[in-house]
Specification:
The chain contains nine helices and eight strands. By secondary structure, it is an alpha+beta fold. It folds into three domains: 57-225, Band 7 domain (Tetrahydropterin Synthase, Chain A); 244-306; 310-361, no CATH class. Strand 6 and strand 7 (137-148) form a beta hairpin.
Amino acid sequence: MFTRNTQLILRCLPKHNLVRDSTRLLPTLGHFQTFRPYSSQNNEFGRGEPSPKRNRGRDYYPPESFSRSKTPANTIIKFVPQQEAWIVERMGKFNRILEPGLAILVPFIDSIKYVQSLKELAVEIPTQSAITQDNVTLELDGVLYYKVVDAYKASYGVEDAHFSVSQLAQTTMRAEIGQMTLDTTLAERNALNHNIVSAINAAAESWGIKCLRYEIRDIHPPTNVVEAMHSQVSAERSKRAHILESEGLRQSAINVAQGEKESKILQSEAEQLQQINRAKGEAEAIILTARAEAAAITNVAKAMAESTNGVDAASLHVAQQYVEAFGRLAKESNTLIIPANSGDVSSMVAQALTIFNKVKSSTAQAPPKPSS
């Protein structure tokens, strides 16, 4: 309990400064490592911590800055909890760091000055404004996860390591947002979180604090920007719909043209095959006709050679063909050049036989071809 001198000092202090001044004058009593104004009444944040609804004035600090453990009372024997580091000062000078387990202190000489939790801590970063590279004001908030890796630096490297790292997270987030456009901020949130963690670790290394990760929870653009984004999305969807429709029409036209092309190709191939088949048929017909005529001529010649009346038969045949030809000419309206004596059939037959005899005699006088 209080000594006599301590009681005299407390009686001399004003009542409204009793808690604040007694905490400053009595380092051996339980107190925070860095003093901040607080309410002595209980609230939802725990005993002795400020209520955000009640303390919103000049002395208000976020509740996360009070999340540190209180320094225990100085006794000879102490038990340090797991995942905590206690800073011991001897006559106002750093002496050692107590690790979890049993610890023995020298009364009135050793004092537990700071208590650092080595667990991972989560700090809620309040909503703040930030301006992007394309001059859009955003409202952002997030959560910072960090832990104390060096209790000595966290106690003596900065006045309030926990409060400082939360403020550093806010300023770093504003600085990183200022280097990115709105579209990049919304699309590359993971990259933004990584950049914030790297920047915090670079600055908080001398404080004995390591930032594990940072998560941006909500990004709130201005109302006019949100409306513009909705309009842009609608326009983009309409554009895609028109593009898809035009692509469908284009593909349909291509399919129709491709079908017509294939149809014409097949039709031309069919016509080609038809002409080839017709030509083959005509060629075969000509060959067969020629063979028939050759056979007929052979038979006529054979008959003329074997029979004494062969010449008369040939003359009769020529006369019949002549008469049939004139009969066909009478049915057609064609202008033809005919001999002057076309009406004299006997002269025409005699002329034809004369030509036949000359061809026969010339063929007989021709020398035979040498055998190969």
